[in-house]
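ARCHIVE CARD
Drawer: 12
Card no.: 0347
Subject: one protein chain, sequence and derived structure
Cross-reference: see card 0346
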Amino acid sequence: MLSKRILPLLLFLLLAVPGAWARKPTKPAAKSTPQKTQPKPKSESAPKSGKSSGSDENPIAAWSGALDRAEDRQGEKWTVYVKDMQTGETILAHGKDRRLIPASNRKVMIFAMALEKLGPDFKFKTQLGLTHILSRDQNSITANVVLRSNGDPTMDSRYLNQKNPAAVIRGWIKDLARSGVKRVQGEFIIDASAFGSEQDMRPAAWGSDHLNQSYAPLPSAIAIGQNLLEVAVEPGRLGQEGQIRIYPSSEGLDIDNETETTSSSGCSIGVCCSDDGRSLRVTGRIGRRSGPEVDHVPVGRPLAFIKGIVEDELRDSGITITGKVRLVTDSNEAERYEIGQVIGEHDSPELSQLLHVMLRDSDNFLAEQIWRATAHRVFGRGDPTMARKLEQQWYSDDELSWIEPGFDGSGLSRRNSFSASEMVSILEVLYKSPYRDYLLDCLPCAARTGTLRHRDMGAANGRVSAKTGTLSGASALSGFLRDREGKERWAFAMIGNASGDTNGRLVGRVDQLMRILANMMDSGYKPSRTADSQPEKPAPGAETAELVKGGA
């Protein structure tokens, strides 16, 4: 009886709530059906979400998607290109033809150009000598004294067995005095014509943010101590000025000492050079119980600084110059002062050793000097105009498509611009050249050497050999990724630019991609399309990350 009463009630409830039994299966159908049947366009960027509702997303697709969002929301700009050197296939292309600021990746071009035009055995030279002696009478000679260099960057303590480089030039002048010369009927010529007239000043292509920064010493044809001053401040008497010591020399500089010795143990010292390079201002406080506080600052006018050292040593050595101590930057004029008798000279280490330091440690001064010196060797003039001309000639000789030459050698200029595809093409030229093994030895290695020694790239550690690049708002990495057998397999370049000081974020993206690429390579990743099938350069502002998919 009870069942006969309940059955009508159940039927009534079901009819009163139509669709109640149909609602539950419709939800999963609505979720899953479009995902399984709707294809993703081949040219589409990686998914906008880093999560997948069905299965784990391809890590490189997630990385590309994060890059898209960073460009849309944070104003970042990227150019990325990864290429399999064995097959010519593209592994990843994201705005690969977009030109951005490469920072110190510029040094890869300097490396290539200098090796070809100068040769690995090339040596710089700095000399002090006399022109043809017209007459000699007891302690007097009729001739000119000439100090000359072709851009030698190694008149520095680390190349001189820790000897003060100013003392080297002073020693040569002392040797002249020891030879019996006390009077010179002529001039003392400081021949800096190798770099032309565009020196002894901050390069026009550099921004003001590099002013007074120790990483940005000024280039000059004659240089000592990498054109840097080491300023050491020690405590004086309480309430009095600190004691200042300047290396390699303070000659020709007006020192404005605004330091104060305090009773504390802390210190805070600032050093800046005036715009005309003639004075040095040292400010701040140093505790009475503090040790020396050391700072480094670029010499404001390197050639004028050397002129001051020369004039001071001539006085100390008792040598009178009847003419002037004069700077010469015009090559036609410099040709009149041929050295006939060498008093002293310094030869640099071979270029191959210097390029090793330049790439591995990202030495800006070496890069600037080598860039200009290479142009001087080829054209007889090593100013930026001729260096840019030589660089374009190098691109043409190696049958590379037109690439905008850089505006400096170090990569400090924000006027430099290169794309990832251009960088990879240069890397391929070097890899196929006789200098391949030397290049690989010079490049920093992830978690091992140089500027990459503290970068953790996971599975890519010890397998990435690449040049770093870092400026405020710019980060770059270009080089090679090796397989597990140690063979260079993929060439890559990635350059990221953004507003403000965001290097930590940009570097993080770069290192993350290297970890992903190493894992992909280890898993046997093979792209399904070749580099030739990639789309042409997108319209300005329309660059997107294109993932070239393939089987595992």
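Annotation on reverse: The chain has 13 helices and 23 strands. Residues 59-119+351-551 form a domain with the Beta-lactamase fold (CATH 3.40.710.10).
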